[in-house]
Design goal:
alpha/beta; Rossmann fold; 3 domains; eleven-stranded mixed β-sheet; 33% helix
Length: 553
């Protein structure tokens, strides 16, 4: 079948599109309309001819990942070319397209304006197809007056800026994905710097598991690590207490938990603050003394009417004493943290007020690995609980950014039932109602809990090398973005596909370069250079071993 004739006796030279510079001939015509699986026939000679155009958007026309436009009445429909295959006698190609949106036609120039997502009327087979110019792209990607941050240049143009709508990005959560070495940390720093520049009185909490971001936010952020975090242990709820203090499994764990609940409630009841609480629960953040808790356990153990033997009491008491004596835990379980510092802690960590430093970097790299997830759980839950109990007050939305998110919200296959996974999943599902925004950064989206990624309204995907990761991200994206995501394996470093609520339509962006002093300390080591250097090994080993033994930085 001759598809050129089927496409409505297509004559490229006769159909012109006034597009702001010299009128451009049509590329081809529509041959099939079937919602997201519509097809075009494009003339190869015309694609080759336009490939010489000085406008990079026109030069890309007809290639995979490029945009084309189709006129329906007084409206231009814009579509993305998803795939191409040779057709008929080889003079043309068949293209599968995804419709992105539509814009009105300017009468005199034929240019697009007032672009919006979605399609009102579909074209009929035989309708001519035209290349999209850079002038059109400018209108399509215009920020339309909404508050936005510019993060890079739209591919393939040289000067059209890619913007993220800040309210939609933060209001419906976002995820930044990319394999190791694609520039993920620098891109996260770029987005957060742009947000901080725009909102110097904002409230951002970032969980940094590798200590990379302190270098990037020295000037405009508050940096906390084990030396100055001073997180009171009594802020933990009962579930988190169990994760830290219980060592047993099975039926023994339930017995230990019952003893801990009884003694913990009694220890909290000793505080004067408990008198003002009508119904004191084991989850209430009331200060108590660890020595009171161990004394109460000792007392219970000595009672004649207790059920069973003394082993559960000894297990609990030994674990609490061990944590009290371990200097690695002093940032949380120090005897100095008994005073009621809850207000001060929340004000410091949530930046209330911001004082021109809207972001808190919580460096958990020095936290003992056994309680890292508990520390992240407490911080995440504090954000969520603060938002819930602050209803009725003037709203102070908080953005919680979680680097290496797959460690804390693992999928069902890797799930360990920890409290951090549950609270982050809850924030993903319900946080929007209370003004809590979640930003997830990960290199293994397939290891993330599926429900959490699907709750992210904006997905910023850098290159993903693993096929399972690619398939997982595609499954989480709306239908119209799938064609864009096909190019994820082919992205260069510091390039990203952005789709979802934070952009008007899916875009491929070449991200801006950050100034040296605003970059995270995440550069790759240069083996070829570093392995040529020698000298000073003895002193270096001495310093390393000293820090290693004292478990200090």
């Amino acid at each position: 079948m001759d598809l050129a004739n089927h496409a409505g006796a297509f004559q490229p030279a006769d159909t012109k599109a006034a597009t702001g510079h010299a009128a451009l001939p049509a590329l081809g015509a529509v041959i099939e309309i079937a919602g997201s699986n519509s097809q075009l026939w494009l003339e190869r000679a015309q694609i080759d001819l336009l490939g010489q155009d000085a406008d990079p958007s026109v030069a890309m026309a007809g290639q995979v990942g490029s945009q084309v436009k189709i006129k329906v009445g007084s409206v231009w429909l814009v579509a993305n070319v998803r795939s191409l295959c040779l057709d008929g006698d080889g003079s043309g190609v068949r293209a599968h397209i995804d419709f992105l949106g539509e814009g009105d036609e300017e009468r005199l120039t034929g240019r697009i304006y007032n672009f919006r997502r979605g399609v009102t009327r579909y074209p009929t087979p035989g309708t001519p197809v035209h290349p999209v110019t850079s002038a059109d792209m400018k209108e399509i990607y215009a920020a339309d007056g909404r508050p936005s941050i510019e993060i890079g240049t739209v591919y393939p143009t040289r000067n059209i800026r890619g913007a993220l709508f800040i309210d939609a990005l933060l209001g419906k959560h976002f995820a930044l994905l990319g394999s190791t070495g694609t520039g993920k940390s620098t891109s996260a720093a770029l987005i957060l710097h742009r947000i901080c520049d725009m909102a110097p009185e904002g409230h951002i909490v970032m969980i940094d598991p590798h200590g990379e971001y302190a270098a990037a936010f020295k000037g405009n952020g508050a940096i906390y690590d084990v030396s100055n975090l001073a997180m009171p242990y009594w802020l933990m709820n009962f579930e988190e207490h169990c994760e830290v203090f219980l060592t047993s499994t099975g039926s023994n764990r339930q017995m230990d938990a019952d003893i801990l609940a009884k003694c913990l409630l009694a220890a909290k009841a000793k505080n004067r603050l408990a008198e003002s609480v009508s119904k004191l629960t084991v989850d209430a953040p009331i200060p108590y003394l660890l020595s009171d808790l161990t004394n109460l356990i000792q007392l219970e153990m000595g009672k004649l009417d207790k059920a069973g033997d003394s082993a559960p009491y000894m297990r609990l008491k030994t674990k609490i004493d061990e944590i009290k004596a371990d200097p690695r835990y002093s940032f949380m379980f120090s005897g100095m943290l008994v005073a009621d510092t809850m207000s001060d802690f929340i004000a410091r960590v949530f930046r209330l007020p911001g004082d021109g430093k809207p972001i808190s970097i919580i460096d958990v790299s020095g936290v003992p690995s056994e309680i890292t997830s508990v520390v992240v759980a407490v911080l995440s839950r504090m954000v969520f609980d603060f938002a819930i109990w602050a209803r009725g007050e003037r709203q102070r939305p908080v953005l919680l950014v979680c680097e290496e998110a797959h460690r804390y919200v693992p999928n069902e296959r890797n799930a360990d039932g920890s409290s951090v996974g549950r609270i982050l999943s809850r924030i993903a599902k319900e946080g929007r109602k209370y003004g809590v925004s979640l930003g997830l950064i990960t290199q293994r989206p397939s290891d993330l809990a599926e429900g959490v990624l699907s709750q992210c309204g904006t997905i910023i995907s850098m290159r993903l090398n693993n096929e399972r990761d690619q398939a997982f991200v595609k499954a989480a994206m709306p239908e119209g973005s799938r064609g864009f995501l096909d190019s994820v394996p082919a992205l260069r470093n510091r390039e990203a596909i952005i789709c979802g609520e934070g952009v008007s339509i899916p875009i491929r962006v070449s991200l801006d370069t950050l100034e040296e002093h605003r970059r995270p300390a995440s550069g790759d080591p240069l083996f070829s250079e570093l392995w040529k250097q020698t000298g000073g090994e003895d002193e270096m080993l001495g310093r390393v071993i000293k820090r290693w033994r004292s478990q200090g930085r």
